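The methods section describes the discrete structure representation at length, but only in general terms. The central task, working out the structure tokens from the amino acid sequence alone, is never made concrete. Nothing conveys this as quickly as seeing an actual entry. For illustration, here is how one protein appears when written out as sequence plus structure tokens:
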Amino acid sequence: MNRSKLRIAISYRSKTYPITLEDISTVSAFQDLIFDTIGVRPENQKILVPPKARQLLQTLRAGTTTQTTIRDVGLSDCMQVTVIGAPDDEIKEVQAEEEKWDKARAKRRQIHPSLLKNTTPQKRSVVVPESVFGKNVVHASIPSSNPLHAKIFSYLNRLASDPAILHVCHLHGYKVGTLTELLPHEHPDLLGLNINMGDTILLRIRTDAADGLRDYKTTRRVLLHELCHNEIAGHPPEFNALNSQLNREVEAFEHNQILGTHKLSTEPVYEPASNVPVDADEEREERRRKILAATEKRLADIDQNIQSQCGDSKKVPFSK
């Protein structure tokens, strides 16, 4: 078997780390080398790769990293890979902080033994799955008697129950405490805002004149953008990579939903010979490529516009 050296650039927290390894190295060895380079353990690594190497993500999910080589998953020479994750020292700090809070909560919740006399624990046989979105809140300036209140609440509920959004959130472990509205006059230059990495996400769902609702799919892309801030603050290169990945996952999920709805059988079927001339087929393919290129450019422009009008913050005052 021919062996060759692959040079791969690891992008981590706005810095690039070059590594070199043989193309017959396993994915597990690749992860170990990443750990040696940036200090993030394999189990804490989230790896973002170009589309041609997306097989790597499937290998990681399947747990076959010790049997699969990096050549098998599509990694190639001079490819750039983005890694997201926390090193051990940061994880220990977070764990220590959580332990401190757990002890404080346990102390507050301590019940005197006399209050437990003649009591029996409740039996719970049904496990309710934890929801992704805690609550959806209409802006406090809109009274419930206003006809717009119901429309806004329905719009927020649609976003919070969108199957593609829930799919992405479950894949990445995202949770949102409160999903609410960002009024046009509150932050005129923003379409969305993520506070405290998912505690609250505010979305501009009304038009600039506040007399109607914005396009749903555009707002959903803004929500995906803000969900990325659950992991990454600001807009470094790894943020853009994660945002693109989330949008691809939404597109793939909805595509699979369509296939699952309309595909009746996987058996071969009779297909009559086409009477369309070859040059017409080529013309159709060229037209398809142009449409695809125009669509990709339009979506890239939308993402660029969203990025320039979205943000994240640790503390921003707003009305609940």
Observations:
- The chain is about 40% helix and 15% strand.
- The two ends are 64 Å apart (CA to CA).
- Strands lie at 5-12, 15-22, 46-48, 79-84, 133-137, 176-181, 192-195, 200-203, 310-313.
- The longest helix spans residues 278-308.
